[in-house]
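EI: anyone free to look at a 306-residue chain?
SC: sure, send it
EI:
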Amino acid sequence: MKYLIIGAGGAGGLIGGFLARSNFDVTLVARGKHLAAIQEKGLIINRYNKEKITIPNVKAVSQTGLGQERFAIVFVCVKAYSIKEIIPVLEKVADAQTIIIPILNSMETGNILRAALPSKSICDGCIYITGYVSAPGEITQNNQIFRIVYGFANQSKANYPILKTLESDLRISNIEVQYSSDIFSQIFKKLAFTSAFASVGGYYHVKAKAIQQIPAYREVFIRLLRELEQIGRAANYTTSAEIVENNTAILDHLTGEFTTSFQKDLAANKPDEREELIFAMVRLAQKYQVPAPTYLKIAKHFGYIG
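SC: here you go
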């Protein structure tokens, strides 16, 4: 079965690297110096446990380097602000049987793609992983968790027999995988941590250690989680107090130097995901008439106009 990974950053590079290491047929779509290094030396993965993996002869191409080949599974791993740019690529590489799995920091990616590509089989998904491009051709994985959650909303996995093979291949490659027909709840729960942490870290320009140890920053993080919890209940994404409890636990297990890609993009003056991580939460709060003053304050700081 042929896999295409569009975006070879922290998430896509690790998915593609783990699958390629297990000898599955994988093609990575990358660009610039990162692409050149993978083509020349293979893909290097620095794991959380200090293990260094070199995967030689990884197939890697640019978007324009894709030929007429079609793929069984396409993972979309670009930043959310780039999603519309890859629609022509998906049109080209996917046929009626292809399953397209976006795993971005966004609640709306699947809806955007389905509207643009109504004849394609596009589900929704998210990923639990912390990794980043640490050098051209090199991905660093920060911790052990590596899990993909995906699904077609309100549909049984049995409707798509190919998914059995997909899940087997991922597990063989040491990637946890979970199918959910309640996928939007799963994405919301996953985004809760990323959104709250990115909001605090970006607003105050701090890393995990400061949010863990300085009461003022930690309190803002918890206030954001409480607002998300209320939004989640109003939208029927969650019915429990798990968002605050679970995500403060995640915070306390991070290395002190951890930051989100949103913070890295801010520091580098690059395009960022404020729309998906911060503004979208304010819009959800407004949609369900839930007060979210802390989110609104931070959103306005980043240019939100509601």
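EI: The chain has twelve helices and 13 strands.
SC: 👍
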